[in-house]
Amino acid sequence: MTAARVKRGLPRAAPRSILNERHYDALERIQWARFLSTGQVRRSAPYPSDRTAQRGLRGLLDHRLVSAHLQGEALQRETVFTVTARGLEALAAAVRLEGPLPPPTRIPRPQKLRHALAIRDVFCAYLVAEREGHLDLVDFHFDSDLAGDARFQAAGLVPDAVVVTERGGGRTTAGIEVDLGTEPTRVLRDKFDRWRQILSAATVAAAAAPTTLIVTAARPTRRATIQRLVEDAGVGAVTKVVLATELPGLLRADVADAPTPPEARAAPEDAPVRFRVL
User: Fold this and answer.
1) 3-93 maps to which CATH number?
2) Any bridge partners for residue 215, and if so which?
3) Could you read off the pLDDT of 14-32 as tens digits, one per residue?
4) Backbone angles phi, psi at 54, to 5 degrees
5) Does the structure show a pLDDT above 70 at 57?
6) Which ranges in 110-210 belong to alpha helices (H)?
7) Where are the domains of the chain?
8) Is 189 helix (H, G, I), strand (E, B) or coil?
9) Rounded CA gap, 123 and 130, in Å?
10) What's the helix, strand, coil split of the chain in %, to 5?
């Protein structure tokens, strides 16, 4: 690891910048997502260029409001930022964070960080779509928020994310699954069978669960496989499968009337429940 790279991740003894609203915007986005990479901060804040984003993050780092983390030994990858205890206090003082202050976030281990950052790419795409006026982002819940959520316990599933948006006076709650091509087909088939339970009319009426599902795929061949699996699971009519690079275009497009959710199908009684109680 180079000395220069280490130095960039450490705060200066005497901060040279004065905090402004853009600093707090970036700090708020990082805390909402729990952690973001440099490029994700730039897209979500937003900053007009990589250089201004780096200067803004340097200001937050010098004021010890964020911590910088390397992605394991992969020095060529972007730095990941989390909000410190001091940063949480600053957000609360600026009335940008309510309730008891949570503990500072610990980033996932390197084996899980790539997928976690891919989920945050989806989050940033929604923030950009809102900024461009295509939708109103009401809320975005990450997998760590959804562990133990009653809407998903019966199906034994923890979604990658759930997003609530408004457009044209209508509100939509969508499940998000981010596929990087690492899960076997049998795991995907089981996952979409569980999504059928969540998307069924009976479940929706009872627990305000998502009514649509968006799946992002890493490559075209994988997208074709996922499309076949969602069709086999009976949720093809309420699922959009797109390449990760196509998601911004999907969010800019007009949303048609919500299709009819699939009929409920009973789950096996011995289906394992995979969730973490909060």
Assistant:
1) 1.10.10.10
2) 177, 241
3) 566 788 999 999 999 999 9
4) -65, -40
5) yes
6) 110-131, 143-146, 150-153, 185-199, 201-207
7) 3-93, 110-252
8) helix
9) 11
10) 45, 15, 40
Q: What is the pTM of this model?
A: 0.84
Q: Which two tokens stand for residue 271?
A: 């289906």
* Residue 277 CB-density burial (10 A; 0-12 exposed, 13-18 middle, 19+ buried): exposed
Q: Residues of 39-62 as b/e, b for ≥16 C-beta within 10 angstroms?
A: ebbbbbbbbeeeeebbebbbbbbb
Do 124 and 178 touch, CB atoms closer than 8 A? no
Backbone dihedral angles phi then psi of residue 109, each to the nearest 5 degrees? -65, 160
pLDDT digits (tens, 9 = 90+) for 232-255: 999 999 999 999 999 999 999 854
What is the Cα Rg of the chain in Å? 20
Paired strand residues for 256: none
The HSE-up count of residue 154 (CA atoms within 13 Å, CB side) is 18
**Distance in angstroms (rounded) separating the CA atoms of residues 116 and 34:** 10
What are residue 36's DSSP bridge partners?
A: 81
